[in-house]
Amino acid sequence: MNELSKLRATEDEHSMTSEEMHQVLFNAITEHSLPPGTKLREEELAEAFGVSRTRIRELLFRLNHLGVVDMPPRRIAMVAKPTKKNAREVFHARKIIETGIVSEAATRATKADIKRLQATLEKERIATETDDRSGAIRHSGDFHLQLCELIGNDTLTEILKGLVSRTSLVLAVFGPADGSSCDCDNHMHLLNAIAAHDKDAAVKALWQDLTEAEEALVFLDEPAVKPNLKALLSPHRAR
């Protein structure tokens, strides 16, 4: 075995999996540990995670596909920086797509589906009451994704996952400091309508939910921040 092969074998044995790295970096971005505009230098990320730059490049391409990382040609990748226009478009797109999703969910939802959704709402409620803003945003997104998953359309779920990712970034930047994303009460109204198989009430609750979340956005410029990637990400490396 040559030296390059030995290096790769050592990396494969001790480094994080691609999925683990994706989750760590994705969470750091959507939970605002890495603010929009943060430069994501391949060499810094490779050192932080203890992997090759090739694997980091693959990771960045995946996050770029989700819309949370920008990769300008011949320039350093950076955390996407949504504009007011981007934010408005994301919510508009979600209203269009999720109208069909909740209508279908109201037809298909089983008791097991409702129980699973209730558990997610309980997590969101706890996060909101304990001022865990990032947790509230995450569980809110999970609730909407689970609604989509229950209708069994993988393509639609993948599309919504990208929109939810963009929403998380928008909320991290423009969301009110004392709020999460969507309102827990609105989610409960939506869930009750789906449990009752009431399509019209479900759509009405969805639009109220997304409209209120959009209206709560605060469009202010943020000061430039340059976080230490190694200090932030290295603790997540596999031991």
UniProtKB/TrEMBL annotation:
What are the protein's UniProt keywords? Answer: DNA-binding, Plasmid, Transcription, Transcription regulation
The UniProt entry, under InterPro entries, shows: GntR_C, TF_FadR/GntR_C, Tscrpt_reg_HTH_GntR, WH-like_DNA-bd_sf, WH_DNA-bd_sf
Which PROSITE patterns does the annotation name? HTH_GNTR (PS50949)
GO MF, one example:
DNA-binding transcription factor activity
Tell me which positions the record assigns to the signal sequence. none
Question: Which superkingdom?
Answer: Bacteria
Q: Where is the HTH gntR-type domain?
A: 15-82
This chain belongs to which protein, by name? GntR-type transcriptional regulator
